Amino acid sequence: MKKKILFILLSVLSFMFSKAQDSTQKQIQSLQDEISMLKKPLKTHFMIRGFAQFGFDASDDNVNFNMTSFNPVLLWRQGDRFLFETELEMEYMTNQLSVNLGYANASYMITKGLIVKFGKILIPFGSFGEKLHPSWVNKCATMPLGIGHDGLVPMNDIGIEIKGGLQLGSSKLSYALYAVNGPTIKDGTVEPTEAGMLAFDNAIDNNKNKAIGGRIAFLPFQNSSLEIGLSGYYGKPGSSVSPFATDSMSVIRDLNYKTVTALLTAVDISYVKMISEIGGVIDIKGQYTMSEVSKASYINPTDTTRMPYSFNNSSVAYYAQLAYRPAMLENEILKNVELVGRYSVYNTPQSSLWYSNKSQITIGLNYWLTWRTVIKADYQMTTVDNGMSGMTSSSSMTGMSSMGATTSNMILLHLGIGF
Amino acid sequence: MIKIKYIFGIVISIFTVIIILQSCTAQKAMIANKSGAQLWGENCLRCHNTPTPTDFNDEEWKTIGLHMQDRANLTNVEATKIVEFLCSAN
């Protein structure tokens, strides 16, 4: 009897063990299936990256903590050829949160050397606006003069672009061609002192013309250390309708800007190389930009005669930047230190109401906490010469004022983060 | 100002011609012969520090690779090799 009970117990136990083993095997198999599913290449992928900059500025007049910017970048990849990307520019200024759309576009790789993209694009004019503007990429806490909002250089616009990189023997060539809504010209009706200035941030075109442009860059060395870029941008910024069509004076009624043209050209250069003889990385960047807007007449609101005036609408902006990081040193602290110097200039048309001759020297010391996190300490001297601000008209010279040159100093301590 | 423009233009033109001539006679080290690690070091550094491969997973590197191919005008071979190298670290 005892033997029978023992036999039954052993049978039940062995059955239970075998069941438990089966269950464990199934669980292991299930986990293995899940892992292999996760390892399987995804057809679609979404991620959020971006950059931010927080800072402390001390000028001659005030000392200020600020949240300079927070720019999330959303990337959505479908397959291996399609990408949607967008950047939101969030800034907290004058006690208000400002949110702008930096870019939002879809791109598709048609062939290995041809990408087509459409939407709101970063304009490939020069190298700074498209490639160097993120706070953890820009080696200084501020942008060079003439680049950025209200600058000489178009930063972004809505349109279509084709671009790519090609191998030329041991050299490389990159190209970008685009058609976008284009700039508008400030006619002085809203901001009279900015009459004749180009405005690039336009969601809706003011005419039927499209601005066209392109950039060709040549990388002659097989290590891609040197890049020389040439950029051009042409557009008609005026509306076909005169903003003064209802004015009582016929001389003013005749003013219109539909034939005005704007031509912008730029040369940019970049040289970045790890040089063992100097124990680190040397980084040279520069850009020279010229803007030529054809002559037109404007009204000065302070001129009681209301006689139109005109001026040669040519502007220039350029910068040169040198950075050195002793990345080959063994000392863990010194190898993350970077020295930066930048000189930039922005000259607007003489005889315009917005004439100024600005120059800026920036000397910086960066400390890299990680490859995408940097503490920037900059000392910046900006000289502004408004000179003889005024205008010429056919009958009078009014509104002239000698402002002279003023220099302001600023210390900036910023944290730039890429995430 | 016009003088400066001419001088600037001439200097750039001479410089460009010298560079083109040099590149034509330089050793033809094709991208195809370069490793992903070498291309990662050369191309990323043109704008920013070289990224740490382990900071992102494979799918993220593929998305970032496509983004950077567009932004930096990398050739397709360069982008593919760089992404393969970055993924190999995971």
Q: How would you summarize the topology of this molecule?
A:
The complex is a heterodimer of chains A (419) and B (90).
Chain A: H1 2-39, E1 44-59, E2 63-78, E3 82-93, E4 96-111, E5 114-122, H2 128-132, E6 156-168, E7 171-180, E8 184-185, E9 198-199, E10 211-219, E11 226-235, H3 250-253, E12 262-275, E13 280-293, E14 297-298, E15 309-310, E16 313-325, E17 337-347, E18 357-370, E19 373-385, E20 388-389, E21 392-393, E22 401-402, E23 405-418
Chain B: H1 2-25, H2 36-44, H3 58-71, H4 76-88
Helix pairs in contact in B: 2-4, 3-4
So what's the CATH class of chain A? Answer: Mainly Beta
Question: What structural class do helix, strand and pairing data of chain A support?
Answer: mainly beta
Mean pLDDT value of chain A: 89
The greatest interface between two protein chains, and residues involved on each side, is: A-B, 58 and 46 residues
Series of H and E elements of chain B: HHHH
Q: How would you state the average pLDDT of chain B, rounded?
A: 81
Largest sheet of chain A: 16 strands, antiparallel, barrel
The share of residues in helices of chain B is 55-70%
| End-to-end distance of chain B | 55 Å
What is the SS-derived class of chain B? mainly alpha
Number of strands of chain A: 23
Helical fraction of chain A equals 10-25%
Portion in strands of chain A: over 45%
Characterization of this structure:
The complex is a heterodimer of chains A (419) and B (90). Chain A has 419 residues and is mainly β. Helix content of chain A is 11%, strand content 52%. Chain A has a single domain, classed as Porin (Beta Barrel), CATH 2.40.160.10. The longest helix of chain A is centred in the N-terminal third of the chain and has 38 residues. Chain B is mainly α. Chain B has one domain. Chain B contains 4 helices and no strands. The longest helix of chain B has 24 residues.
Any descriptors?
heterodimer; A: 419 residues; mainly beta; Porin; 16-stranded antiparallel β-barrel; three-stranded antiparallel sheet; 3 helices; 11% helix; B: 90 residues; mainly alpha; 4 helices; 0% strand; elongated
